[in-house]
Amino acid sequence: MTASMKGKVALVAGATRASGRAIAVELGALGFTVYATGRSSAAGRSEMDRPETIEQTAALVDAAGGKGIAVRIDHSVPGEVAALVERIEADQGRLDVLVNNVWGGDMFTEWGKPIWEHSVERGLRMLHQGVDTHLITSHHALPLLIRRPGGLVVEMTDGKAVDGEYRESVYYDLVKVSVIRLAQAQAAELRDHGAAAVAVTPGWLRSERMLDKYAVTEETWRSAEIDHFGITESPHFVGRGVAALAADPANVRFTGQTLSSIDLATEFHLTDIDGSRPDFPRYYAEVMIPGHPPREEGYR
């Protein structure tokens, strides 16, 4: 990617770690000013209790060539989001890209439990974290984004199909499907303003939490003792895809669609940080679902 986005402004809501951080950094590499928001900061950790901070993300954006601005904010609080957008308007006078990546629901998911056994309190908290935050952020941010044609909204999700395979938790399933539908709804509402909205899903993400879970690092991940880990992708794979989409002056052709990291990599001729192009959807369908032994040859 060679296009310069100097002067363009992005808000990455939920930029503390994983795909949010990588998207912020890759936008920075194109020259964006990036507002990196989240609840985990140098001032204290969120309930996720992870060490990554928004200040670290902002520093990485700077190092990549952009301008990173860390703002500690809870996107479930409308007043805080409104104040953030007012700040962006006062400081920059524009917003070109909104990435709705707020999640924070992992700790509330009870996998494999039917709805009558899953905690209602934990489930509703998951919905609040994964859906309400996106609605609140779009409500306040879109009036600034639509002031200029060419704006882009990216709703980060997990999986592509609204009518696809059930995700083993009714609340998790509802969150991820709702985000896809939200992208479609925003696409319809933004059309007359010359803006686009898409949903984007990574494949099997090698996030910081996932690396910790299997006691490996980004340098040693291939030694993880779990089947099929060879098809995982770094957060920068989807990050590069979202950045390329943001830099594409004709990105409105994708509005309303749900795009995977491999879709974006194929469209924009991108690779992951190791130079490969992992195709998790095809691997999942052809290797994991049929129960074949792990084999990454031909899939990355």
UniProtKB/TrEMBL annotation:
PANTHER family associated with the record: DEHYDROGENASE/REDUCTASE SDR FAMILY MEMBER 1, DEHYDROGENASE_REDUCTASE SDR FAMILY MEMBER 1
NCBIfam families: PRK08303.1
Signal peptide feature range: none
Organism: Paractinoplanes ovalisporus
Name under which the protein is recorded: SDR family NAD(P)-dependent oxidoreductase
Residue stretches in coiled coil: none
